[in-house]
# Entry
Amino acid sequence: MAATWLRSIIVPVSEAALVIECRIDGERVSAECGATILEAAACAGIEIPAICHDSRCASTGSCRMCLVEIQGKEGLFTACQTTVEDGMWVATRNSELDKYRETELKWYAAHISPAAFAAYPDKPLHRMMRTHGVVPAGKAAKPDEVDCSMPQLRVDMSQCIDCLRCVNICEQVQGESVWHEISRGDRSHVVPKRGALLSEGGCVACGACVDSCPTSALTDATGGQAESWERTTCAYCGVGCELEYGLSSGDIVASRPAAGRPVAKGHGCAKGRYSFGFTHSEDRILQPQVRVGNDWQPTSWDKALSSAASRLKAISKKHGPDAIGILASSRSTNEDSYLAQKFARMVIGTNNVDCCARVCHTPTAAAMKAILGAGAATNSFDDIERASTILVAGANPLECHPVIGARIRQQVLHGGSKLIVIDPRRTGLAEIATVHLALKPGTDIALQNAIAQVIIAQNLHDPDFIAARVEDFDAYAENVSDWTPERAAEICEVPAEDIRTAARIYASEGPAYCAHGLGITEHVQGTEGVMGLVNLALITGNIGKPGTGINPLRGQNNVQGTAHMGCDPGIYAGAQPVKEARQAFEQAWDAKLPKKQGLHLMQMMDAAAAGKLKALVVIGYDIAATLANESETARALSKIDLIIVVDLFKTETAERFGHILLPAASSFEKDGSFMNAERRIQRVRKLVDPPGTARADWQIICDLAKHMGHQQSFTYASPEAVWDEIRVVWPAAAGISYDRLESSGLQWPCPDVDHPGTTILHQKAFPHGPRARLRPLHFRPSPELADKDFPILLSTGRNLYQFNVGTMTRRSSLLQLRATDRLDISPQDAADLGISEGETATIKSRYGSATLPVHIENGIRKGRAFTTFHDPARHSNRVTGPHRDRMVGAPEYKLTAVRIDRNQAQPAIDAS
Ligand SMILES: Nc1nc2c(c(=O)[nH]1)N[C@H]1C(S)=C(S)[C@@H](COP(=O)(O)OP(=O)(O)OC[C@H]3O[C@@H](n4cnc5c(=O)[nH]c(N)nc54)[C@H](O)[C@@H]3O)O[C@H]1N2
Ligand SMILES: Nc1nc2c(c(=O)[nH]1)N[C@H]1C(S)=C(S)[C@@H](COP(=O)(O)OP(=O)(O)OC[C@H]3O[C@@H](n4cnc5c(=O)[nH]c(N)nc54)[C@H](O)[C@@H]3O)O[C@H]1N2
Ligand SMILES: [Mo]
# Structure
């Protein structure tokens, strides 16, 4: 059974369709079968006062404010807990109930100070008091009684009425259980666990308790009073949460989760809730700039665009169009990205176009396309709650996709699902896993082969599914037959018995949902690692059904969309191969399009290093800071004659290597759409004007195209006009109109306007036919080996509070929660190296070095280390190396052999 938070929303469609009729306060009300009186009344616009109730949590009925009368039944009933029945007559008000509520409200009002009442007029209890004419009569806290230990949350327990909504939502939605109820004197109190301060209680700044709290006991510490609220899609990761942003005087001042939306279901995370401040950061680029010597000079749009256009034309004339590359931004909209690849192909005349998907999930797209025929998640996030087993491979959703992490955790803790985690580190989900396979980095193929060996040897595969939907099973079975768990155990450094247990659970306790991340893809066998997961799903029948599938947790807000729009050298919009769809696009765009195979991002870097790439347009992507092997990237970039950067900020790439800088609008400052990790297209809405003269990417691309002589094909009235062109060239999105997106997102394929969208792919067949062909895989270790000079295997990734190179999150209060990158090492290595917590150490690889503060982490094994790349000043990528996925070129960020040296300059800090 799904957690309460999700249960109400993820009901089977057939049940939800049953409608009953009742009367509430004399009004005829239709409600869904199973709805409570409170919900039925709310549908009819009748508000029943309720203080302890939050629809995301189980109802406790403890405040008893929502008591109602039911005709023909003795006594009073809590509306939040009583299910409405067909023909039921309910009275929510009468003089007795009104009087009772007023008395109760007065009791609550005795805790509310007049100042707090005035300062937070929208808090539910305050609104209720105003409606019922009850005045505040409590005391305000003394300043030292207010807990501001978390920079995002203000805790003033003088205003707490012990409704326990914070306790419930933290436990039942976020799953962190930070808040606890204790008895003190004659009253119970709510306190953070472990310490007196919230920051000591494990708070992750998701803001759910603030959102739920009916008084001003818990409020946002940052931001201000909103005059209005607007809904849009979050600017950070590929989950695609919808949030509402509070606006005041043309600025964003607050944020809250949007209630009842399909992805986040009323939840959010630290970044969506508290990291919007970058929009009005003082160092936003407000005007185009050109480099003159070592300096940057502001210039007009016209001059900057004219200069960019004439220099691009000159380079193309002299060196040919393939001396130019375009990198699109996965932070931009589908509309922006569609135009970026149209610009590359039609205006420049090259297929050299790519985006950051190259470095994260292009291996996924390639592997899934090769076997299943579509390079995107097979299922939906709602399948998490339908799964009996969840396999999380090389992903850390509690930090990188926090709302999905929270849903997985709820499903495991309260929904009864088993959890298998494959990750070298003990991540938050690994802590609650049924089995945690803490493998040696880079050995997933060996592990997957052993899991398959157990499944087949123990006859746990699905013969019916294999017969109907799978090809080449015998060759596959033959290939894994000698991959005994004992053989893999030695390579992967995990117990053979755990491999057997994981295999048994995945194969026999289905439906099994697989979510994977960069721990699989960012390796020399990255594409094969995803193929390995697809193989396992196919032999166990975990494809094309509810609660199953292969579901990449895509990285940036629109990385799925940007690549799918054709920002990849091999495909046009709709992931249609250049080889097959060129003529169709030539017709649609009325232009001759390049045939030559384009360069992908890493090949562009190679071409630049060889002096062959002469110009690069970089839209919203800080390659200088984020590509692996930073010194090689620098060498390549410094050889490019013209680098045009389109960004919100002067990134490392712009600062060190750029020639023209064009100021872009953020997603809060433009209209458009994003595509999330489950193929859902959602609207992005302009909330505020861009600062200075900044423009939306789609406008910048059109302006540049016009300066290059392409007036007609780059004239659009709005992003909607661009989207309507996309719907024409990409038939699977034809049914997704902006009008339909107004109410809710839609998952492609959605070929016509009456189509509901597709939640599960491959239910009856694959795009290429009824069967998918298994891929036998051979484990070939990375050339990046540990030896006596470089004995520790470093992996790099992320933490909850910062996003990628921190360009946006470092310009928010989240910086206070994680100011810099740190090097996590095992207690054993710390002892061997004589390094204490907080000391700085130098990590040195065969490619470069970086200096970082050390954190001793119990979840890391001896011989392994982990760091992030969120602080550009730390240059973590000086350490990462040159190896790439053998099929699509993604860098091997997840494995570098290093030496760690205690920094001699720093005196040791006594860790005790
Ligand atoms: N807070 C936050 N959220 C983010 C981002 C961010 O920077 N910060 N970035 C976004 C982006 S662009 C992306 S692509 C996603 C990435 O999301 P994830 O893929 O979840 O993130 P990572 O931390 O890079 O790596 C995931 C896990 O892979 C494990 N791992 C390392 N090596 C191996 C291995 O050999 N095998 C296996 N099985 N596991 C291994 C690591 O220990 C780590 O826990 O996150 C997105 N969301
Ligand atoms: N060591 C190590 N390095 C890694 C990784 C790793 O795991 N380890 N992961 C890699 C991965 S998966 C990724 S995706 C990359 C991420 O690398 P980047 O994509 O460079 O990271 P972001 O910080 O997300 O930067 C996005 C840029 O887009 C800009 N921006 C935001 N919105 C818009 C917009 O609407 N328009 C325009 N024009 N610009 C906008 C921001 O200001 C910012 O400069 O890092 C990679 N680097
Ligand atoms: Mo990414």
